[in-house]
Amino acid sequence: MAADITQMPMNPELVAACNALGYREGDKYMKEPYCLETIKDLIRYLRREDETCDIRRQLGAAQILQNDLIPIVTQYSRQSELLETCIRLMVNLTQPVDLCFSKPEMKGDKAFQSYGLEILSHQQAYKEAFGDEDFMACLAEKLKKLLEKPWERRREDDTLLMERILVLVRNILHVPADPNAEKRTDDDASVHDRVLWGMNTSGMDKLILYIASSEGEQHWCIHAAEIISRMLREQSPEVIAKAGVSTAFSERKKEMAELEAIREREREEKRARQLKLSSRHSRFGGTFQVKNLKSISEYDVIYHRKLPKDVNSISFELDKPLLKRPKHRLPMQDMTLMRKSTLSIRLFLKDFCLLFLENCYNPMMYNVKDHILHQRAQENDDSYYLWTMRFFMEFNRFDEFQVDQISETFSIQTFHYVQMQILKYLEMLTTDKNELTNWARRLHLALKAYRELLLTLNTISNHPDETVRESAKVVESNVFYVIEYREILLVLLRKYTDIKNTRTFLIDLVDTTHLYLKMLEKYCKGKKNVFVQKKKRKKTKRRKTKRKNEQGEAAASREAELNESWDNIAGDLSAMLQGREDIPENVVPFDAASEQPVEEQRADTMVRIQHCLHNGQAGDGIALLRAAREVWPDGDIFGAADIAPEDEFMALREIHFTNLNAGREAPAATEEWPEEELDDEEYEELEAENDNRAEEEFHFGVFVNQFSHSDILRNYVHLLESFRTNTPYINHCIIKMLHRVAVDCQKAPKLFQISLFYIFHQVLNDPIAKTSQYKEIVKFAHYIMKEFFVMVPKNPKIFMELFFWKDNKEIFELAEGYGAAVRQSTGGDIGDWDDDLKKELTELFNQFREVQGPKDAVDHIMEKISDESKTRKQIIRQLVNMDLIGGIGEMKRTKGAKRVAIWREEQVEELKSLFAEYREADDIMKNIMDDLIEPRPRTHVVEKLLELNLIKDKKELYKKKNRGAQRRRRRRGKGVEEVCMMHLNGLRNVEHSVPHILLR
C-alpha cells in the first residue's frame, strides 16, 4: 500500500537495541542475555516518541516483530516475564493508526497522512506474520491458563495480561486488508483468512466463545464483541449460512445466467457498433479550414477532425474537460470490503456462528447493552453492538430460523434503541464535520440493524407456528403505530447527500423503505380502520382578557410600591454590607425536612430572599443570600465567593425588583371563565388539549404521498442512474416507489424531469432493454412518456419545466394553467369582478386608505361593499390586480395586531334578539353561541355585547350556580388540587424567571 514511501534513517540506539535481542540459527532463535531488558528499553523508546511516531516507523521498517518478537514468544513461551513483556510491546506496535494520529489537526495534514500510510503498511506485514499457527497457539495456551484460574485467585497482573492478549488479537484482526497487494480472488485464502485459520487450529475461537457466554467474564464482553465483529467483517451472513449446503447446482445456474447476460450485452454492443460504420470509407480526413467562421485571430477557423456529414454541426466541445467537483464536495466512497473465502474457512466460520448463536448471543448482547447504557464501555462502542445484532440476526434468518436464539434483540425496546441511535448519528453527522466519515459509517450500521429488525419481523409474521405469529403482532403493531418509527425513513431520505453518505447507504435505505412500505401495506389490508399515533400541537388556554388601562394602572401601582419599599430598605442594606450594622447568623437557606432535594430548593431560597427584602428585613435577606452562596456555589447563582459589597448591593436590588412570581403563575388563573364554572366535560377537553399526542385514522395512500417530495424523488432518480450496476431487486424497489408516486398518488407530472428522461433514453437504447432484467423500467418509461405527451397540448411550456423539480403547486399549475393555484386559494373569483364592482372598490379604497385605528381600509371596505360574499383575501388580491396597492404585504396585519370581526347590521340585530331571548337562561353564552347563524369566537361575542351596552360586566354572562352542593364541592376540590400542582410546578421552574445577571 505504501511500499514506495522513503524510509527514514534508523536511530543508532534502536539499531543496537534490535541487535541485542537475539539472532537466528537455522530454524531456531537464540536470544541474547539481555533480551528482556532490551525489550523494556524499546517500550520506553515508544513511550517517548514524537507526534510523527518516528520510533514506531523505524521499528516497523526493521521488521522487529516478524524477525524477533514472534520467534521469542514461540520458542520461549515458558518464560512468563519475557512472554508478558513481548506481548506488551506487540500491543503497542499494533495500535491502530487512527489512535496514533488522533488529534484533529493531524487528519488533514499530508505529512501525517503519509506517516499513517507507512505505519499501515508495516501493520499489514505484521498481520501476515501473525498467521503463524504456533504463535497463535502460544497466545491461546496462555489465555486458557488464565481463564482456568478462579477470579478470586487472579492477581492484578493476570487480569492485565488477559486484557493485553485480547487487545492484541483485536489489533491483529483490525488491520485492514490490501487487495491490490494480496491479489486474491474469491474462494482463495487471504491474509485475514490465514489469521482466522490460526485461531481455529489453536482453539482461540473457542476461548472467545467462552468469554462471551460466561457469567464470570462479563467485564470482557465488549472485547469479545469487537473481536467477533473483526473476525467476520469481510463475510456475508448469507454466504456463511449456506456454506456446505447442497445448492451448487442452483448457484451454478445463477452464475451461468449472469455470464450469458454479459455475453448477450457484448454481442448487442458489437452489432450496434457495426451498424454505425459506413459501407464506404471516407477518404477525406485531416485538417480543414472553415470559411466565414473566424477564430480568435483574424484568420478562419482550423478544424482538425473528420469532416461531419453536416458542416453546420461542427462542435468544439469534444475536448472540453468535465466540470470538476471540489475535493471537499466529492462523493463519499464506501471502503467496505466483502469477499467470499475458501470453503474450509466458510465452514469453520459457520460452525463458529452456530455455536455463538446457541450459547453466547443472548447473554453477551445483554451484557454489552448493559455496559453501553450504564457508560461502562468506551465511547462509540455501540457500533459493535449494532454490527453484531445485524450480522447474527441475518445469519439466523438464512440458517434454520429460531426465534429463541435472538430473543434478546428482538423486541420493541430494541427498535426504540436503534431508532434513537439513528437520530443521534444523523445529528452528529451535521454538527461534527471533523468526524464525518466515522459518523456516516455508524449511521449506516444503525440503518442496517433497523433493516434487519424489519426483515426478522417480516419472517416471524410469516412463521408457520400460530403462537410465534401472535407474538410478532405485538411488535408489529407498535412499529406501525408510533409516529417516530414511520417517519425515520422519510427523514433519512430527505437528508441524504452523496457528500455525507455513501452510495451503498442509499441502496440500503431504498431497500429498507421498500420493505417497510410493503409490510405496512400488508398490515393495513383487510382492516377497516387502522389507528396510529400522530403529533398534535399543544393548545394553550385563552388568557384572561384585561383592558389596557387596567393593565397599565396595575403595573404602575406595582412599580410605585417596589420603589417605595426599596427606598426604605436601601439605607439598612448599605450599612450592613459596609459592616456598620450586624447581620443575623445561623441562617439555613434550605428545608432539611422537605422531601424536595436540596439541589432543587434554590428557587425557593431566591423567593425567600425577595420576600425578606419586600418586608423590610434587610439583615435576613443578606444572611440568606450569603448562606445560599455557600450551599450552591456552582454557577455563581447567588454571586461569586469574592463578590464586592457594591456588586452584592446591586444583586440584592435586582432580586428586589424582579418578578419571580411570573414563572409560578398557574395557567388556571389566566382562564377567561372562572375555574369553578367548568364542568367535567370541559375539564376533559382541557386535559386533552394539553396532551402532545393523539390518535388518528391511518390511510396508507396519505402516508405514501409523503414520499412524493422532490428531495426524495431526486435521490431515487440519482440511484436509478446506475441501473446497469444495480441489482434487479434494487431497480425494482426504485421503480415501485416511482410507480406509487405516479399512479397511486396520481402525481406523474412530478416525474417530468430531464434527468429521469435521459435515464429512460439510455434504458430504451440498451442492447438488452427488452429482457426481463429491464422490462419493468421500460414499461414504466412508456407510461411516463405517454402522460407527458398527453399534457404537452395543454401546456406548451412544459418542455422548460423538465429542468426543474416540481412541488404540488407546480404540478397543479402544469395541468390547470399558471396562476391556477392562486385562483383556487382565493375561491377562484379573481376575474369575477364586473366594472361596477371594480369602480365601487376603487371609491371605497380611496375613501378609507388613510384611515387609522383598530380597523384598516380592507375592514371598512368589507363593511360597505355591496357584494357581501367577498372575503378579505379576495379584496386584497383585486386591489393588487388593479395596481391600487403595490403588493399583498401592504395590507398585511402587523404581528400581534388584533383581528377585527366585522359585524353587519343584520348580524347585530340577530345578536340583540338572541340576547333578549336567553338573558334569563342558566347559560346565556352557550345558547347564543349555539344559535348564531355565523359562528364566532366567544370573546368577540362578549365584546360586542359590551359595545352595545346590553351588559355592564361580562360577569353577567357566567353560568348560574344552580348545581348540587356535592357536585360543586367535587369540582372545586379538583380545581384547587390542579391549581396547587400548577403552583408547585411553577415554583420549581422559577429559576427560568430570574434575570440572567443573577444566574451568572
TrEMBL record:
GO cellular component: replication fork protection complex
Listed Basic residues bias regions: 535-547
GO molecular function list: DNA binding
Pfam family, one: TIMELESS
Biased composition (Basic and acidic residues): 548-560
Coiled-coil segments: 249-276
Domain Timeless N-terminal as annotated: residue spans: 28-290
Alphabetized InterPro entries for the sequence: Timeless, Timeless_N
Keyword terms: Cell cycle, Coiled coil, Nucleus
Name of protein: Protein timeless-like
